[in-house]
Amino acid sequence: MIQFKGIHKSYQTGSNSLHVLKGIDLEVTAGEMVAVMGSSGSGKSTLLNIIGLLDVHDSGEYFLDGNLIKGLNETKAAQLRNQFLGFVFQSFNLISFKNAVENVALPLYYQGVSRRKRNKIAMEYLEKVGLLPWADHLPNELSGGQKQRLAIARALISQPKVILADEPTGALDSVTSQEVMELFQEINQTGITIIIVTHENDIAHQTQRIIRLHDGRIDKDFKNGHSRKQYATVETA
Q1: Which of residues 82 and 122 earns the better pLDDT score?
Q2: Higher pLDDT, 100 or 231
Q3: Cβ-contact 118, 102 below 8 angstroms
Q4: Do residues 159 and 79 lie in contact, with contact meaning Cβ atoms separated by under 8 Å?
Q5: Given pLDDT bands bounded at 50, 70 and 90, which one contains residue 82?
Q6: Which listed site, 99, 143, 167, 183, has its alpha carbon 20 to 30 Å from 130?
Q7: CA distances from 157 to 5, 44, 182, 187 (A)
Q8: What separation in angstroms does the CA of 119 have from each of 17, 97, 104, 132?
Q9: For 53-57, which contacts have Cβ atoms below 8 Å and span 24 or more sequence positions?
Q10: How much is the pTM?
Q11: Is the distance from CB of 101 to CB of 110 less than 8 angstroms?
């Protein structure tokens, strides 16, 4: 589903260049639920943004569902995001003046689906995440856990093959975090690949696999408590 071969990414800051990803080799197969961990600055958000076609790599090869991702304009990138990817963020990224059903229906609006049809489908997804009674409520009338379930419903409505979640429990208490993780596990059981960036060990250990980044490289890759493969490479001067 997702394959990185020697992915490098640098950012120019004034006269300095910051080398964030340093030769990442990675494969995530369809249906996996993976946690990406690492300290601040280790490259985990950059990794997620490249997977999500929100940023572009400098060198190496990236394949998404067998498609080589290279030289995409924003229109083509948006089409692929709409076709393959769903996003869930720590800050929810909900539109404050739209109610729950309108927020969930938003991806279908960009696909040109009629208002009546997209709202009908959105109601079905609100029911899936237990929010049907709050369909007419604005985001500021919902709890943190409800907002995140709303964001998950919005990510699901376009029927993505992959969900990318950036610190999805970071703004939630432990009980609500557990509820959100249980929802992710239910979604994963339907065959959707899920990649979660998190700094919380208890969240990461509820996934099938943990990838730890350190200084722009994959330091460890664990499945069921056993090391799968070491991808780290030695950078030469």
Answers
A1: 122
A2: 100
A3: no
A4: no
A5: confident
A6: 167
A7: 31, 26, 19, 12
A8: 46, 16, 8, 12
A9: 53/77, 53/80, 53/81, 53/85, 55/9, 57/7, 57/8, 57/9, 57/21
A10: 0.91
A11: no
Are 61 and 138 in contact by the 8 Å Cβ rule? The answer is no
> What is the rounded distance in angstroms from the CA atom of residue 125 to the CA atom of residue 177?
20
The SS3 assignment for 48 reads: helix
Q: Could you say which DSSP state residue 205 is in?
A: T
Give the span between the Cα atoms of 5 and 218, in whole angstroms: 12
Structure tokens at 196: 């979660």
Does residue 5 sit in helix, strand or coil? strand
C-alpha to C-alpha distance for 57 and 19, rounded to whole angstroms = 11
What does the pLDDT look like over 215-224, one tens digit per residue?
Answer: 999 999 988 5
User: How far from the centroid of its chain's Cα atoms is residue 9's Cα?
Assistant: 19
Instruction: Assess contact for 104 and 150: CB atoms under 8 A.
Output: yes
Whole-angstrom Cα distance, residue 157 to residue 179? 20
Q: What local confidence, expressed as pLDDT, does residue 237 receive?
A: 29
